């Protein structure tokens, strides 16, 4: 197969040189296209009656010749049309030889001609003139077989997209997903902002960051692990009341069907609101985005039948874990949870393991059994260093997480705005980091100082492209356009 590919490339290189010998530029900068394929198809009757010459351009997806007649399927982003080249119909009959001897499947060609109907009744373009726009040096794989190897598909994603209409449709849906998310926030009166991607102290999440060096300042900096959480809360201090950001964030941790290291997230912050108000907005937002992107509220995800239109439930963290494991998270210890995790055959990272990570692993076992849609509430304050305590139950955070198909698809709080309590929580997190927990949050003195100037009651929420991958019922990696890969040796 490899030798065949080499031979085909050599053959195309010869054709490329032939074109150069004929003083034909195989890679011109300009095209004279004035009509998209879809426009040609939709207005065919009018174009056929007028016999007005038009110019289309695209990639040849199939090519068959019979003597002095060639039939081409030409594709642009809008659709596919048949082009017919007849030697006697060309403005310059010598051009037919140039075409038949030097043009291959996959080449980009511009065709000028008129609409006509073949004797078999096919709406087509009768070519009068053509121009080579890009000579390809490698043949496109057979669309019937495509790219079978998963790693090869990711590595040559551009071919996977070219050969797979469903993948092209997913990319369009992905764009619509974020457009509708943005539109929802704008409709609610939120201001879109941009905050730093490089930070001296990464904050806003329990995650390990990527480190790089800033040459001009001669300091190490981190790629952000949240989409501007602490920065947006500083904007609340500064007097803004409704902000959001859509952007990339980076986490240097495990890769699986739900987790990536480089991905898009939205975070919004709403002053004078608590987590109850946040749940109202998020439920409305998820329904809006699903309807705008997929035109439905019903999905099949990870084996669950999900209806976002039905009543969203509330799942209490403590009660759910107790019901499914027998462990009371507010009356337990690390040893007891370890024993239960082992009993349940739950794998967990033993490095930096502590009571916080123990409780989190126990919860993750339970959530996989919950279909949703609904919200996780009653989360322990020990795993919520940036959230307010519940007024009546100080061991519980005012935190919520949308639960759909066994996974958390977002995270929100009544944000902590007490600078003394925030300082205390940061110090507790720092102790966890020093004990080996790389996901514990760093002590951000600048943020505490900002809180000392006063931040109004605020609800914050974030969700990532994991939501999109779930609604598509695909892995997080498959739902990205170009997922990160280890370089090929």
Provide key terms for this protein.
15 helices; 489 residues; OB fold (Dihydrolipoamide Acetyltransferase, E2P); single chain; BirA Bifunctional Protein, domain 2; alpha+beta
Strand content: 15-25%
What is the helical fraction, as a range of percent?
25-40%
Low-pLDDT runs of 5+ residues are none
The pLDDT mean sits at: 92
Number of strands: 19
Major sheet: size, sense and barrel closure? Answer: 9 strands, mixed
- For the CA atoms, what is the radius of gyration? 29 Å
State the distance separating the first and last CA atoms: 19 Å
Question: Helix/strand/pairing class, anyone?
Answer: alpha+beta
Structural write-up:
By secondary structure, the protein is α+β, with helices and mostly antiparallel strands. Strands 6, 10, 11, 14, 15, 16, 17, 18 and 19 form a nine-stranded mixed β-sheet that branches. The radius of gyration is 29 Å and the shape is elongated. 35% of the residues lie in helices and 24% in strands. The chain has helices at residues 2-21, 37-42, 44-50, 95-102, 150-155, 157-163, 165-187, 229-237, 275-294, 317-325, 334-343, 355-367, 419-434, 445-452, 466-472; strands at 54-66, 69-76, 79-86, 108-117, 123-134, 191-192, 198-199, 211-214, 219-223, 242-250, 262-271, 298-301, 304-307, 313-316, 374-377, 399-404, 407-408, 411-414, 458-464. The chain has two domains: 2-140, Nucleic acid-binding proteins (OB fold (Dihydrolipoamide Acetyltransferase, E2P)); 159-312 and 372-472, Bira Bifunctional Protein, Domain 2 (BirA Bifunctional Protein, domain 2, 2-Layer Sandwich). Helix 7 runs antiparallel to helix 9 (275-294).
